[in-house]
Amino acid sequence: MATLKLRRVAIDTYRENVAFMHRACNVYHSEGFQALNKIEIHREGDGVPVIAVLNIVDDEAITAPGELGLSEQVFEQLGLPPGTPVQVRHATPPHSLAAVHRKIEGEALSREDYLEIIRDIVENRYSKIELAAFLVGCAETGFERDEVLHLTRAMVETGDRLEWNEPLVADKHCIGGIPGNRTTMLIVPIVAAHGICMPKTSSRAITSPAGTADTMEVLADVDLPPGKMHEIVQRERACLAWGGTARLAPADDILIAVERPLSMDSPGQMVASILSKKVAAGSSHLLIDIPLGPTAKVRGHQEALRLRKLFQFVGDRMGLTLEVVITDGTQPIGRGIGPVLEARDVMQVLRNDPRAPLDLREKALQLAGRILEFDPDVRGGQGYFIARDILDSGRALAKMEAIIDAQGRHREIPDPGRLVHQVTAPHDGVVTAIDNLRMASIARLAGAPLDKGAGVDLARKVGEAVKKGEPLYTIHADFPANFDFAVEAARHQNGYEIS
To answer: What is the pLDDT of residues 181-212, one digit of tens each?
Structure first.
């Protein structure tokens, strides 16, 4: 095997192991390496390799002949200092690729097949091209429901699991697609104030204007190591943390990194993704929210019912007590779309502020009530009223403040973006529809979620009257380029229908 010295290349390759070799490197020629080959990297005397995709460079400022440059992710996996000699050789193709080919041809795969595929994915034996082939094969040929179960189990078994030593560990998940739907940040303090354990690990946005973690990060630290998360949950009964710090169903994160640019979200893959994360996070009781609407992820009632049955089938066999609710997804929830604006809405609801968006409050109470009814001491139908009492009494606010302090309160809350543009009604009428996808797109063009203050602030919702020239919503941005993109997008199609 050829030997090279390690060099750290400060490039974030986002969940893909990438190595860099200079074109003038003797090893490049003697071993017959080519760009996009997969290579095994061994520490001398260590038989456990790290696998990476090879890129060839001509600039010694990146990597010189005699060196092997590694992206940040690979460098962290190896855990070796720069200059350490390592051995490099061609990687053996993953054996599980044969099963991927069978899936592409339409064959249903076994539990062993999925376990082997997912194990190879976690060990970075798949390139992005091979991952895409697996995802497209699954999406095009579809999953039998047993295959979704096999995939879910494989994702759980190839990662870590959190243990809470509690008989009831609650969680809630919305399948997404509705801007401003920040009910989780209201449900968690209500449920925790009742006494149910709810350690919430949430995602950051990938294609939406804000994830729960992005919005919570406006108020407090969300990047919590598992030890601190346990400590907070033990004391406060809940947390609102980013799930990326724990190695929970790690294959899911790798697959999502390929899925999102391809705009792929097959039902089977989505169910496996969600339930594997929840089981790995230690949940025992789970509420799934499926918003239904013409511009939501799920647009037909029959599609929603099929998805609910699939969640129930897999959840039951994974040992989860699971309830699925189909909710109104015809328009954004609340007024704010973007981290700062959504955090404002959440805190207004918790503070019982008269300006708080009623639809956000009501949906959060309905969902929190269903979770409270997982408690055997709460009678069916009483959960909503208990949740409302907890919110109205200020107990939910007190619990949220305690969670924020425990996670690390941010003393300075960013303001909404300083560049402001009002989108107004072109004529008198009543708002009959708001396009969820369009509003999310405008908020992202404005800079959300990376710019916390960027986004869209709604002034009118479906069913409300508006006169010509009155505001429909306000665009907020911090940077002129983003601002111009968002304003131009709104000018082209503002996302509102007015009768």
So the answer is: 999 999 999 999 999 999 999 888 877 899 99
Query: How many angstroms separate the CA atoms of 450 and 214, rounded?
Result: 8
Per-residue burial over 396-425, b if 16 or more Cβ lie within 10 Å, else e, is: bbebbbbbbebbeeeeeeeebbebebebeb
Write out the catalytic residue numbers.
265
Task: State in words which class domain 419-498 has.
Answer: alpha beta
Residue ranges of the alpha helices (H) in 195-266?
A: 212-216, 226-236, 250-259
Q: Assign 232 a pLDDT band (cuts: 50, 70, 90).
A: very high
Continuous segment of H or E residues that includes residue 315: helix 301-317
Region of residue 95 (left: phi > 0; alpha: psi -120 to 50; beta: else): alpha
Torsions phi, psi of 143, nearest 5? -115, 140
In order, the DSSP letters of 273-304 are HHHHHHHHTT-SEEEEEEEESTTSSB--HHHH
d(CA 221, CA 225): 11
C-beta separation of 428 from 466 below 8 A: yes
Side-chain half-sphere exposure of 294, counting CA atoms within 13 A: 8
Q: What is the DSSP string of 453-490?
A: T-EEEES--TT-EE-TTSEEEEEEESSHHHHHHHHHHH
The candidate with the shortest Cα–Cα distance to 151, out of 96, 202, 205, is 96
pLDDT tens per residue across span 467-480: 999 999 999 999 99
Please write down the HEC assignment for all residues of 158-212: CCECCCCCCCCEEEEEECCCCCCCCCHHHHHHHHHHHCCEEEEEECCCCCCCCCH
What φ, ψ does residue 307 adopt, rounded to 5°? Answer: -65, -40
CATH fold group of domain 2-90: Barwin-like endoglucanases (2.40.40)
pLDDT at 45: 67
Per CATH, which fold does 170-245+263-407 belong to? Pyrimidine Nucleoside Phosphorylase; Chain A, domain 2 (3.40.1030)
